Amino acid sequence: MRAFVALNIIIGVRQLPRLENYWSTDERFGDPYVSSILTKTRFMKINQYIHLRDTSNAPGRNDPNHDPFFKVRNMIDLILPKLREVYKPGQNLSVDEGMIGFKGRVHFRQYMPAKPTKWGIKVWQICESESGYCCGFEVYTGKKRDGTRQFGLGYDVVWSLSETYHNQNRHLYFDRFFSSVTLAEHLELVNTYVCGAIMANRKGIPDEVKKAKLKQSGQLIQKQKGNLVATAYKDKRQITFLSTCAPPGRDETGRPHVNTSYNKRMGGVDKLDQMCSYYPVGRSGTKWWRYIMWYLVNMVIVNAWIVFQKSVKDPVPPKGYDHLQFRMDVADQLMAGYTSKKYRVGRKTKMCNKPIALQSIKHHELVKIEGRKRVCRENEHEMKITMYILYGPPLPNPYPIL
């Protein structure tokens, strides 16, 4: 299984049009390294029958204990705690949604026209702003059955993803889908501060900011209540911000502090998605849960690369050691020299590839089995070689078939 995962990592590095091309005898397509690890038949069979859980006892859709992610739940529960155990992120965290590309049939598939990947499975993520390290995630399954969301979906997503980092003086950055005055006030109660764009018509925004009609670039209106600062700023277009961690006023560039801070630290999730897109793991198919499985494997590899960069202080890796080389080293360690390619003695291998003078004709005795009319194929092959050595090439048939 480790060799199977390693090969999927390697296949993501060198992508060919079809999966069968990696075992092709055509030099333009074939990959001798991949074919030396697992045979095509073995790889295809593992890929066909791979499962993470026994689904025979899965609760039905009408069962109160139904879990939409039953097939990958054990993998999610294994990875989530480790993301927080192995690495302690910095002060600034960003929250945003990502997409796992999937065009098949599943009831929680989403369509987001503004995203590069428009069709797929939506994943809420919280990442370190500077590096893109994923600290937590949550796969979106659609509306709740009971439909109870007291403060809205954006509030619940940010609160659940950041709950581990409450009371640690963290700064959260998110876009206007998640922002609300209620969320900013509640997070401030647990010593967690926010900065993000917000829709101007959200409840709690001052009327001066809500109804502002700024015409010239650089115009600014700000209103403050405690640490909560609402900002309307005209750049190429008018933008509204809400912040509890950025001071009012402008910085040395003439922009509001909240705008500069937001632009600098909002892209943590985008950095993660960018690094994951370089070398995607796994191949396309029809089963939705496999897309989640390979996405998690890919995300964990990116996280490991980020931790590796931050933990290695001495110049142990050679100069120029990058993300690509790191992935190949991970694949090599997973395989640990494993190979399933065996050179078996068959009808046209050992006996036919060696010179006749070096062939042994005694290692396989001719044995007649009672009840059988023909001897085995190996016996037939060796018998022909024996006759050739003893009597030379066969004579032409004196009675040709007309």
Task: Describe the protein in words.
With 402 residues, the protein is of the alpha+beta class. Among the domains are: 176-264, no CATH class; 350-391, no CATH class. 35% of the residues lie in helices and 15% in strands. The chain contains 13 helices and 9 strands. It has helices spanning 2-13, 32-37, 40-49, 73-85, 153-162, 181-189, 207-210, 257-265, 268-278, 288-311, 323-335, 350-353, 377-391; strands spanning 92-101, 109-111, 119-128, 134-139, 170-174, 192-197, 220-225, 228-234, 238-243. Strands 1, 2, 3, 4, 5, 6, 7, 8 and 9 form a 9-stranded mixed β-sheet that branches. Strand 2 and strand 3 form a beta hairpin. The longest helix has 24 residues, at 288-311. The protein is globular, with a radius of gyration of 31 Å. The model is unreliable at 343-365 and 398-402 (pLDDT under 50). Residues 1-305 form the PiggyBac transposable element-derived protein domain. This is PiggyBac transposable element-derived protein domain-containing protein. Pfam families: DDE_Tnp_1_7.
Distance between the termini: 57 Å
Uncertain parts: 343-365, 398-402
| Number of helical stretches of at least 4 residues | 13
Q: Average pLDDT, to the nearest integer?
A: 81
Radius of gyration: 31 Å
Class by SSE composition: alpha+beta
The major sheet is characterized as: 9 strands, mixed
The proportion of residues forming helix, as a percent range, comes to 25-40%
Count of beta strands? 9
Shape: globular
What is the ordering of alpha helices and beta strands? HHHHEEEEHEHEHEEEHHHHHH
Residue fraction in strands: 5-15%
Pfam family, one: DDE_Tnp_1_7
Organism: Pinctada imbricata
Domain PiggyBac transposable element-derived protein: 1-305
Protein name: PiggyBac transposable element-derived protein domain-containing protein
